[in-house]
Amino acid sequence: MIDGEWTTESVGRLSLPRLGSWERLEDPQAALVLAHPPVPHGVFRPNLVVRVEPAGVATLTKLATAAMASTMKVWEDVHIIANDEALKEDLRGRKQKFVYQLQDQTVCVDRWLWLVAGDAVELTASYAVEQLVGMAPLFDYMIGALEFRGRIEKES
Description:
This protein has helices at residues 60-74, 132-144, and strands at residues 6-11, 14-19, 23-25, 32-35, 47-54, 76-88, 91-102, 105-116, 119-128, 147-148. It is α+β, with helices and mostly antiparallel strands.
């Protein structure tokens, strides 16, 4: 386990740990935003954003493809690194990894996608490339401890 005081954040059917020093921020476009403690001006502030929306008839393949297409539309100089399978509680998902340019910084993004009980669940962790050594293991730990509550429907 990563050292520090931990607390649990819950939103809808999911809960995940966060370090006590991290902040929960409000964003009307997200179910949950967790942010690193404030950083000096010009330094990227690592964060984890959770979005939950009705999936409708979307399949995991369509969800992952749409997420990548949107990424390439929104950010400049995007480089997709991976679009791998992500298993969680026997639930098939996708883990996408990409980088993009934000002003003079290269930002790394790890995004996990699942279809859970009719909802599309997206968790997106962002950090500067210089922060990779500390942030990637932290976010992997948080996602590893993520729990889905209630009835979980597996995609056929």
